[in-house]
Write a structure and sequence with these properties.
heterodimer, A: mainly alpha, Serine Threonine Protein Phosphatase 5, Tetratricopeptide repeat, 2 domains, 19 helices, B: 209 residues, alpha+beta, three-stranded antiparallel sheet
Chain lengths: 405, 209
């Protein structure tokens, strides 16, 4: 472990101050020190890196042809545009795939292929937050982290290195916050390469913040994302009456997520220049993902992880409640299905249908809740409204029967 | 280790109320099948009897996953097709064993649930335990089952093994308990191939106590 931390410190550019004797802390990397190690059109030269690229190209073929990839040309174009903005000198060399997995994750492969999970899109409040994650991942590529990590692993022969690799592979196989994409081909093993050590994560954070600010995005967005994740995990654990436990693999392991967040805030302050304007770009984000948001919410809510889902809905609602978010809140309560939560759900459905953008499904559930509460006439009105809004709904036959019985 | 095994199991599974499947993937006591003859036989906890039109294979339950009220059958292996019987699930119980602290949980059954709520519970079962990433409801319509006013739920889902599967569940709540037969099979070929079997099984079903 000590060895690893010394390496991290060297990578961190000799900023020694924060390192304790036991090696439990990693110094913050100054964003100004983060220059790209590669230019446009980078191709591997050394034999080991060429071999790695060959393997990764096979993985990319598999992912590109996967039917988990979301087929939405407009959205794909939007993501490509984003990585083009914050991708530094390699901006034109990236490929980016959106896969339908309701977990928070993004992966950068050593060849410049990025994979974004739909669960990540769901959790981002604005374009700056999403661009921050993409910039962090781009930084792994620009700083050649994958090959550095690979060489680092091979040259270390101590038992800790072996354990770390084992853990990485197990993490991939167990789908720890990587969803089920680890089932694709050799990805399970390969994912172990993408679990960077703390020093590399600190680099990617620092460089990400810098790339973000250079494009006029509010660089504080990265610390916000991190804060959101911590809060989501806490609320998820609270609803299941336990302590927060999950490893958040996107940013690698770290003794204290809170100190990581603090580092990101300091780095953001470093790169912000007085007089310059930084934007979160909320409107352009909504314009790009608005159409898919109902699906993203549905995918999360149906997992019945009430604490996490409620956190996500409330976090998005900071930009304003609407029918979709109220409906999602009601769905979370209904699926949670504990004593008293039926009433919570009924109330939220009742509020949801007041909004003009309420999904048709909100009317059906509102009607069912009213019916269970014995309010027959109101129930009939709500179900009739549902059928008017969605005459061809797959459950229309059942709802019609409810109306006549 | 448990977590790894479970993840491999669920990711490989795709279906069925027993989260078990995946044959050779894990080696956790699979290959435990018993022949079901083409005559009336009792399933689950014994409170339901059905008559399959031909021979099927009964999967042995897994100690820490399956509950007494659920039994799984297959023709060609659980990744390709399967029928699950839910035989009198009590209010407040879940379709699979799970610990109170699992982040993602299959909702409990409640005896006052309407058909859309049962359908939604099944959808969460697939998403939480089957690795389903996309789930589409194809139909929910009234259908008599066990001589009671019940429902038929048709759906299809894309699982993390990238296979589209299609399913049909027929169910009813009898004396506050859930009785349901769920058919789920690969959408290409297998679903249509064994659908007549499922229909015959569902039609033949009767409660014996």
């Amino acid at each position: 472990m000590t060895l690893l931390d010394r390496r991290s410190l060297l990578i961190a550019g000799g900023a020694l101050a924060a390192a304790s004797a036991t090696g439990t802390a990693t110094a913050r990397v100054p964003p100004s020190s983060m220059v790209p190690l590669i230019g446009p059109g980078y191709r591997p030269v050394d034999a080991d890196e060429r071999g790695m690229w060959q393997q990764m190209e096979r993985v990319e073929e598999e992912i590109a042809g996967s039917n988990l990839v979301v087929q939405d040309a407009a959205l794909a174009g939007y993501l490509k545009g984003l990585i083009g903005k914050v991708g530094g000198p390699a901006a034109r060399d990236f490929r980016i795939y959106l896969v339908r997995i309701p977990d928070f994750n993004a992966l950068m492969f050593p060849t410049g292929m990025a994979v974004i999970f739909t669960g990540l899109l769901l959790r981002m409040r604005n374009e700056a937050q999403l661009a921050g994650v993409i910039a962090h991942e781009a930084a792994h590529f620009l700083r050649k982290h994958q090959i550095r990590q690979w060489r680092d692993m091979r040259t270390r022969t101590d038992i800790f290195a072996m354990l770390a690799m084992g853990a990485g592979i197990a993490g991939g196989a167990a789908g720890v916050n990587t969803g089920d994409i680890s089932q694709l081909g050799q990805l399970g093993t390969i994912l172990s390469l993408l679990r960077y050590n703390r020093g590399l994560e600190a680099e990617a954070d620092a460089m990400g913040v810098r790339l973000l600010a250079e494009q006029g995005y509010d660089p504080r967005a990265m610390a916000e994302t991190w804060a959101q994740l911590i809060a989501e995990e806490k609320l998820s654990a609270k609803y299941r009456r336990k302590r927060r436990h999950r490893d958040i693999s996107l940013f690698g392991t770290h003794p204290s997520p809170e100190s990581r967040m603090a580092d990101l805030r300091l780095s953001a302050a470093d790169v912000m220049r007085p007089g310059a304007t930084y934007d979160a770009r909320h409107a352009s984000y909504l314009a790009a993902i608005g159409k898919i948001r109902p699906t993203l919410l549905d995918d999360q809510v149906k997992l019945n992880d009430p604490g996490a889902s409620l956190y996500i809905v409330n976090n998005l609602a900071q930009d304003g409640w609407n029918g979709l978010l109220r409906y999602s809140e009601a769905e979370i309560y209904r699926l949670h299905n504990r004593a008293g939560f039926d009433e919570h759900a009924a109330r939220s459905y009742a509020v949801a249908v007041q909004y003009p953008d309420a999904p048709a499904d909100a009317w059906r559930w509102h009607g069912i809740m009213l019916s269970k509460a014995g309010r027959r006439e109101e129930s009939r009105a709500a179900l009739t409204r549902y059928l008017a809004l969605a005459p061809n709904a797959p459950d229309a036959a059942f709802v019609r029967q409810m109306l006549v019985s | 280790m448990t977590r790894i095994k479970l993840a491999i199991l669920t990711a490989a599974t795709a279906l069925s109320l027993s989260a078990c499947a995946g044959g050779a993937v894990s080696g956790l006591g699979f290959g435990n099948y018993a022949l079901v003859r083409a005559r009336e036989t009792s399933v689950g906890n014994g409170s339901l009897r059905v008559a399959p039109p031909r021979e099927w294979n009964r999967q042995h339950g897994q100690l820490f996953v399956d509950i007494r009220e659920v039994e799984d059958w297959t023709l060609n292996g659980p990744l390709l097709d399967g029928v699950s019987f839910v035989t009198g699930l009590k209010s407040g119980a879940t379709l699979v064993r799970q610990t109170r602290r699992d982040d993602r949980q299959v909702p409990k059954f409640r005896s006052n649930m309407t058909a859309p709520e049962v359908a939604s519970m099944l959808e969460s079962l697939f998403r939480v335990r089957g690795g389903t990433v996309d789930f589409k409801t194809l139909g929910l319509a009234p259908r008599s089952f066990l001589g009671q006013p019940g429902y038929q739920f048709d759906f299809e889902h894309l699982d993390s093994d990238e296979v589209w599967r299609r399913g049909r569940a027929v169910g009813a709540t009898v004396n506050g308990r859930l009785y349901l037969i769920l058919y789920d099979a690969a959408r290409a070929h297998y679903y249509n191939a064994a659908l007549p079997d499922f229909e015959a099984i569902a039609t033949s079903a009767r409660v014996v106590r």
